Amino acid sequence: PELLVREGLLEPADFEDSPAAGEGTVDYRRSSAFKERLLRRAFERLLEPGAESLRQELASFAQAAEHEGWLEDWSLFEACRRTFDGEPWWRWPEPLAERDEGALKAFAASHRREIEYHRFVQVLFHRQLRSLRSRAKARGIRLIGDLPIYLALDSADVWSHRRFFDLDASGQPREVAGVPPDLFSETGQLWGNPLYDWEALRDEGFSWWVERIRHELSRLDLLRLDHFRGFEAFWSVPAQSETAEAGSWQPGPGAPLFEALEAALGELPLIAENLGVITPEVEALRRRFRLPGMAVLQFAFSEEGTVPEHAPHAMARDTVVYTGTHDNPPIAAWWQDLSLKVRENVTAYCGATEDDASWALIRLAHTSVADLAVIPAQDLLALGREARMNTPGTPEGNWRWRLRPGDLTPDLAHRLAHLTRLTGRLPTGD
Question: Which residues are catalytic?
Fold first, then answer.
């Protein structure tokens, strides 16, 4: 929001009631409320003299062909949700929940200002992201996005495209997403997201998915497809189930979806998240469309030795190697949880010790043959379990760790730059 001061939409005094930053964690409730107040102040000043260029940009953005497929639905959805006190769309007045054309027009006419506000927020976000991407590109840096395969039931996309989801007449899922029981969970994981009606999507040439990917690639350089295995076959659980145990594997869209994406978009700059229960059919689909997979160094070691799918000596070049992902503990915490035998194997493989485990695996990732290496900030800082980002299966307390000003010191930058240069991983630009 500080950038809006330069444009005259905010004043320094607007920041006087800024909430104090939490010590190492994000308070989403307080920070969201504060930013909402700032954005609404900025929107009010949009009508004042001197903001003509931004008003014109807002109008042009709303009319642009690449935005017409989502911006109107998103703005309507958000305006409705605010009007009805955050209730999910299936609890709105029936004509709006069912997207009756007359009801939507009447609501839009009577809530024009609120709808314009949500468009305004999207313009600000897109122009700031565009500026960030431009500055990164000038330095040879590309941005990677993360695209979840599934959506929340209470979302603008599901509300506006119900025909593409497996919902009953009342808008509730017949089956929901999850993963089956495994070594980490006796009952599996019940995600609860609505599943796609892949037949309906196929009948329309997968146009919704094509536009979804096209839109993201207009803002980012690469996309990681979360739960890639769900495109080959997905775990379908009856909606009323309390665990994922009663689910079954159902066929996904497979090659026809990616053929449609290639036909529309050309070569696909996608990364396939191929962790978990991966079958030969899933790997065949990934290889057919030349999508790099993932390897996680925390998964590379066992009591018996190494795990080929994740160990650098057996790694394929078309791989994105991670020391750990957002679902793993930082390396320092991972090391503490290892058995003595696994620690011995890690030390024998890469020389890791308790004092240097984080950077030992950072070096291992950099010196691997993988085309890309991803290092979480927590590992660069050699932090422990207090800095874990996400614990799968726990609904509260996740995604709160924050990188603080001053954490990335010049010494740390020099150390990382030196290793990056030594291993031939410096950005080369276009």
Answer: 226, 273, 327
